[in-house]
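[job 0412] stage=fold_complex status=start
inputs:
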Amino acid sequence: MSGFAKPLKIALGLIVIAGLIVIPMNFNRYGLFILSQWAVMTIAAMGLNLTLGYAGQVSLAQGAFVGIGAYAAAIMTTHGWPLPAAIVVAIALSFAVGWVLGYPALRVQHHYLAFVTLAFSTLAFLVFRNESWLTGGIYGISNIPRPHVFGIATNKPLPFYYICLSSLAIVSVAVWWLIRSPWGRAFMALRENPLRAQSLGIDTRRYTLMAFAIGSALGGVAGALYAPLTQYIDPVPFNLSLSLDLLMMVIVGGAGFYFGPFLGAMIAVLLPEWLRFTEGYYLMLYAIAVMGLLIWSPTGILGILDRTMAARRTKAASALRAVAKSRLETAQ
Amino acid sequence: MSDPILSVHNLVGGYGKMTILNGTTFSVPPATITTIIGPNGAGKSTVFKAIFGLLKLREGKINFAGRDVSNLSQRALLNAGICYVPQGRNIFPELSVRHNIELGGVAAGKDIDLPTRIEAALDLFPALRRKSAQQASTLSGGEQKQLEIARSLLLEPKLVLVDEPSIGLSPLMVQQTFDILKSLRERGVTVLMIEQNARSALEISDIGIVLELGQTRMVDKAERILNDPRIGQLFLGGAMEESAA
Amino acid sequence: MKSTLLAGALLAFAAAAGAHAQAIKLADVAELSGGGATVGTNWKNGIDLAIEEINAKGGVLGRKLEVTHADSQSNPGVARAQVQKALDAEPYVLLGPGYSGSVKVTAPLAAEAGIAQIMGGEAAELTQAGNKFLFRTSFGQQSSMPKVAKYIHDEMKAKSVAVVWVNNDFGRGGRDVVVKELERLGCKVVADLSTEAGQADFAADVGKIKAANPDAVFVYLNEEESARILKELKRQGVTAPLMGETTLIGQKVIELAGDAANGARGHVGLTTDAPVDLIKGFRDRFSKKYNYVPDHNGLKGYLAVYMVKATTEKMGKIDSRAFADALHGLTIKAADEPGILMDVTFDANGDIDRQSFLVEVVEGKQVVKQVLPKMK
Amino acid sequence: MSAVLEVTDIKKSFGGITAVDGVSFDVREGEILGLIGPNGCGKSTLFNCILGQLTPSGGEVKLDGKVVTGLRPSELNKLGVSRTFQLLQVFPKLSVRENLILAGQEHQGNMASRLVGRSDAGLTDTADQMIGFFKLDHLAAEPAGGLSYGQQKLLDAAMAFMGGPRLVLLDEPAGGVNPTMLSDLKERLVAINREKNATFVVIEHNMEFVMSLCSRVMVMAEGKVLAMGRPDEVRKNPAVIEAYLGH
Amino acid sequence: MSNLFDLLVAGLATGAIYALVAVGFTLLWQTSQTINFAQGEFVMLPAFLMLAAMHVGAPFWLAIILGILLSMILLGLAFKILLVDPMMRHGVLPLAIATMALAIGIKEAVKQFFSAEASPFPSIVPTGDISILGHAVSLQSIGVLVVAILAVFGLTTLLNRTSLGHQMQAAAQNPTVARIIGVPVERMILLTFLINAFLVALASLLITPIYLAKFSSGEVLGQAAFIAAIVGGFNQVRGAIAGGLLIGVLDNLAASYVSTQYRAAVPLVFLIVVILFRPQGLLGRPEERTV
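[job 0412] stage=fold_complex status=done
writing structure:
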């Protein structure tokens, strides 16, 4: 990424943003729905990228937090609360649950942590399904209203797409700010060397819990948008496979890269849609594409950039070494 | 000096795009202890990997006991009589001490009398015999190093490559390990060693090799290298020598 | 690099499907992968078979039928997107989905677009929300379950019943209605057991049934699970009579469960095993084309297309807006339209009325014990 | 000179094995204490008990007269106790400068201010000074993982000093470092010791390094203190020769 | 509590299958740090290979042999060479994700090329019951239990009593050193993949007559085996066996005595408790920590 000059990067960013605002105006409802879904999934994946990519805490439960956010929003808005209030509650709730789920991370790491969060994810699904008094059980919650913003109804796909897009924008800025702050640096320290981090005064407990809680809260935000987007939720979409999908988005995009989730969500949400023309084969092709991509670049799409840069650096170092003068000779 | 048992000529190689060895050349006479010294990153361990076929050579030749062994497989090298004891902890922690040693004979297949050789190896290391039924992870650091050496002796090698045997060992343990190497030399085994603890290593060595930036800077009798002021200054921590008691 | 990818994404949407003239376009959204894949695949195959037949005979009002299939992945969110996509292409009629949850999320969209939706869902509430564009292809649970409860009470003379159901919207829906009905009739539900879709080991569930010692067992699971529980019931020696729906006594279950299916009874609204010549013919054609015997979902998909044909021919024109009105209150006779297989009437809610059967498995064969006439 | 660190009767056992068995000593303000002993004698375990990485089974650690036993490593670090590690412990993907900023940031402000405040926590200048002091200038923007082993060891040490510690525990700083680089490191340590009046405890096997750097040396064997004294005294102690030094 | 006996037998029989699958799972983890999320699909596929062989006219015994061979080629050799080898060096996660994708791919392929329907599958063990202590126990359960125990016993003997087994362990515990002392590490790793493929094919043969051959039947099994492996000890063969049996029994007891709605939760809660208080698993060895 450092290959570009700064003004060029800014210009590129502006073009993309303008494109995301203007081009969908001509889209049909399906296109807008998919694009909205992309925005929502990107938010959830950004949360996971924070927890996993930056802070190195493997979580297979992000889908459950999307579910928690979605149920919070669905239950509240169907009871007449406005969506912003529901989003605040969704954030608070998933933040709190994420904080609690962070505690196992203080005891175990890596694949063990993955297993704990995986179990949590399935448990959350069982609660969504079995506690029908609250969640409507397997029947789910239907007729979830879409909000009015500044007096404009967002029942139509385009206005609601803009809600998703602006939420994505807000989250993107917040995450960008977070990762370049000392907190972001502390998160990376957790990922790269928690032991050393501790001895440098970094309160690894608090940062670990924060990484979980903030990442989960973003999952909650995504969920709170997902509910009014589909206007009906049931437990099935929030089972383990959503968590795995989100993980796939983060890894395929490039874990620990700011733009990774954008790309990863694009592949996970859009690629299957593009492949639909192959009918019965589309999921098979999608699976093959994901495997191929990972074989090509196990560090994700953005990992390719990193690799090229590392290769360039090695080459330079190697050349430098070849011409370096021996100290023994200079001493003579 | 008699014909060298090992000679490497103009080795060029590295990892990926990084070239570490830039024409390393030296030879080692039989039944000696030879120590390679040099700064971090000089390519010392890389030379060992190259000799032991763990690094694909871009150029160069390795001759061992009169035959070309460049880019042979590990199994072939082991059977030709070269053993390699890498840096750090190199045991199989969950297998018993005896099974660890036994694995040293894998390369020879069914051609050797394994039980006899295991017994012979255990005779050399009484501490290991006492603990032969225990899991290898229960051994102390020094005993683990002994286990590695014992294991490498199972094939009755002619040349042993030892990378930093003293790292993390107390001075007493270092002495014991060096004593073992000396006893190997007495049995006619050639030892090629890398040591950061260069001064002590050169004291027990016959030959010293100075490696820098992947090239051989100097090959000479160990004592002459020890006494070379430039070497002392650059590679043995000259400043330290003055303040040392 | 990001921008080019994005631009590509945006362009791909802009180039959404162009319009085709001439053929009558139907859109199908079904569960082709995920938990409902078996349901959706049967449904899809039924549709394809019907369209092939109709087109071979010259189509509808001289125009061929054409269908696009889309996979909902058994996920309501995806179903919504796919139905949205299908509706954007302005189909004549929308077919599917099969899962009630997916129907719930998509029905308002079709209604808003004014396009009739012929679906496979059986949950009671679907047709009770006043949606004027939604039609069933089979009995809703609100009409089938009372018949089951009545049979258990009247014919089996059961005072206590164990209810085993699969914990998805299908199973839960049936369970809720049947339990209500049983209690109304004065039967005691002594065991109320939820099971997981795809569950393999029923030892514990059957153990509980055995412990409850009921006069009858009502089993409401998917076909494979039905087969597994039948085997386990036999193994543990449960002797109480078994009652179920099509999913308990279908040919597929008999094939999978073998001897263990003998004696099981069920109410069958729609089955390829019905003693009706037209249905036998359908079954033969289907098995010939796809190499397996369809379940009731295959029939539903097949019927959905013939509903389109019959209604359109009745209207005498191809008019998407008028379709729903024309189908409400319509009676289609098998004599007029053999593809509908049995006489059927649609009410103002889009619910279906048709003959149904009470069947028992005897020596690996379905035997019809009772024919239940149309309700009206 | 007052004692910065007082360790009283520290014990630590794992399962049935006693790794540290009642060790007591103190470290005086401004001194460099060496800690030597055979492998497995409990040196590192002792370090980890002092630093809060492990909870001792018994005993007490006092810092400036206050009991700090059971505090977490991060809390101890904020009280001015810093350390280096036996094996390489830098943050390989962060640049050298970022590594150093990270090492100091938790000593600035509080959690909230670190979230909303400046992204470098105002430490860029301090970090650059430290970079200069350890002669890493040309590498400031390089990822730490790309540095040579010796350079990483220097960075590791530099990081330990970013928070302006009173007491630094160094675990085998010489291990795997070539002699030339090592004399550089020693020079830096001595300078910081003198200029900033920082106190050091050093675990090391390299006798030349220990003997030339330390004012006092403590020898451990089998979890107990075997000897404590000036380097030359310790070196002649028969028990130490028997258990550790040999010859 | 006559019920309890039935539950235990059923639980053990299911658990034995979990154990077979979990053992292969831990083998892959030990030799190549592969967390195989497609392990359930690996069990599902061989049955279809055998069915396919029977469809083209092979007798059952030949179909079994062909199925096992094919699964060793596809799920052992090809899986290792095409997917694991290129990614092994890049850490656990990308490979885990790739196996998730593989799981989708296998399921979809079976559905597309074979059938979305469940198919019956012949049993190698005669159906029917025998009476043990007055309880009817199905021969299938006993058959499953016996074959699974034999397979696992054979495997542990191989690993602990033979030189080949020691070489495999060496390759798993420290591949670099194993290579240096002449252990053909690549061949050992390949061998574990082949063993895994053999075990899943065996599990497939045992379980499919009961579970039926269906493209989605691997999902439940894979997750159960996964939990079993972790609970028992991720890095120990004997742990996986204990975990498998335990989860099988626990699942049945949970369904009986807790709640059918939450039966799936019990093994999961157990899993969380085990990880938090004994992360290495009940019989596992603690993984090394550097403090």
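[job 0412] summary: Chain A touches chain B through 14 residues (CB under 8 Å).
[job 0412] exit 0
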